[in-house]
Amino acid sequence: MTQYLDFEKPLAEIEGKAEELRALARANEEMDITEEAKALDTKAAALLEELYSDLTPWRKCQVARHPERPHCKDYVEALFTEFTPLAGDRNFADDLAVMGGLARFNDQPVMVIGHEKGNDTKSRIERNFGMARPEGYRKAVRLLELAGRFGLPVVTLVDTPGAYPGKGAEERGQSEAIARSTEKCLQIGVPLVSVIIGEGGSGGAVAFATANRVAMLEHSVYSVITPEGCASILWKDSEKMREAAEAMRLTASDLKKLGVTDRIIPEPKGGAHRDAEKTIEAVRGAITEMLKELDGKDGKALIADRRRKYLDIGGKGLAA
């Protein structure tokens, strides 16, 4: 059963009525509700089109966080073959909020790394809701180094509200681990492409997304802090998250104008969760194109390309 967001309540009522009619028809074969159900379906499709034609930044945040949205594990299983997970940071523990390993993408050997939020209560707790601890970022550094050593392109999939801010994480050097991961992204002489598939939150996202090419799904978000966190700091009121989201320019369209991201991957009408298969195939196409753009460049050129990208960020969009 589809989980509806707050702004989708009118849509939920219409689709619910259509399903009730179909349930009645299944229970009573003599009942013909074809025309009524069809009319409700048409009305629902028109409302869905209207709701998603011009989403506010806050509504995009809600869509990006939808629990049924495809997560990193879904992309890895669908897009990569011969995936061999690699675990642990060789120092403290294995952080399940970060998954990564060797794989093939379109039959090309690659290293894939991403945040995994989980898809039910048990897995979400195990994955810490996609909020990585220091050992997660140190695992990522280890995998980035391995990719650099063997000349493997790296694909990262970003979906995190931010790095875990708990006491233990801070004691084990959270900020240093994030900085090391970001630094390693800038240093490796292999193609590095990243896709923001849901939330791209704070340094926890930057640590994976400091790439040659960065793509965002249409309704994903990427920002230095959550709108709720921003509102709590600026207005001392987390309920002003709508105003914060508007001011932060965290949507894919805003970030492409600023040069933070390079391309926007269209989502099915109603968001990625309404057609996960179509969304995943769109991401496949974007990764394929980004890797093709970097094909043939040597290590020095790739590092220089990455450095120039981040030095130039914001310049072309500040006047907008």
From TrEMBL:
<dbReference type="GO" id="GO:0016743">
    <property type="term" value="F:carboxyl- or carbamoyltransferase activity"/>
</dbReference>
<dbReference type="GO" id="GO:0003989">
    <property type="term" value="F:acetyl-CoA carboxylase activity"/>
</dbReference>
<keyword id="KW-0275">Fatty acid biosynthesis</keyword>
<keyword id="KW-0443">Lipid metabolism</keyword>
<comment type="function">
    <text>Component of the acetyl coenzyme A carboxylase (ACC) complex. First, biotin carboxylase catalyzes the carboxylation of biotin on its carrier protein (BCCP) and then the CO(2) group is transferred by the carboxyltransferase to acetyl-CoA to form malonyl-CoA.</text>
</comment>
<keyword id="KW-0808">Transferase</keyword>
<keyword id="KW-0963">Cytoplasm</keyword>
<protein>
    <recommendedName>
        <fullName>Acetyl-coenzyme A carboxylase carboxyl transferase subunit alpha</fullName>
        <ecNumber>2.1.3.15</ecNumber>
    </recommendedName>
</protein>
<keyword id="KW-0067">ATP-binding</keyword>
<keyword id="KW-0444">Lipid biosynthesis</keyword>
<dbReference type="GO" id="GO:2001295">
    <property type="term" value="P:malonyl-CoA biosynthetic process"/>
</dbReference>
<keyword id="KW-0547">Nucleotide-binding</keyword>
<comment type="pathway">
    <text>Lipid metabolism; malonyl-CoA biosynthesis; malonyl-CoA from acetyl-CoA: step 1/1.</text>
</comment>
<dbReference type="GO" id="GO:0009317">
    <property type="term" value="C:acetyl-CoA carboxylase complex"/>
</dbReference>
<dbReference type="GO" id="GO:0006633">
    <property type="term" value="P:fatty acid biosynthetic process"/>
</dbReference>
<dbReference type="InterPro" id="IPR001095">
    <property type="entry name" value="Acetyl_CoA_COase_a_su"/>
</dbReference>
<feature type="domain" description="CoA carboxyltransferase C-terminal">
    <location>
        <begin position="39"/>
        <end position="293"/>
    </location>
</feature>
<keyword id="KW-0276">Fatty acid metabolism</keyword>
<comment type="similarity">
    <text>Belongs to the AccA family.</text>
</comment>
<dbReference type="InterPro" id="IPR029045">
    <property type="entry name" value="ClpP/crotonase-like_dom_sf"/>
</dbReference>
<dbReference type="Pfam" id="PF03255">
    <property type="entry name" value="ACCA"/>
</dbReference>
<comment type="subunit">
    <text>Acetyl-CoA carboxylase is a heterohexamer composed of biotin carboxyl carrier protein (AccB), biotin carboxylase (AccC) and two subunits each of ACCase subunit alpha (AccA) and ACCase subunit beta (AccD).</text>
</comment>
<dbReference type="InterPro" id="IPR011763">
    <property type="entry name" value="COA_CT_C"/>
</dbReference>
<dbReference type="GO" id="GO:0005524">
    <property type="term" value="F:ATP binding"/>
</dbReference>
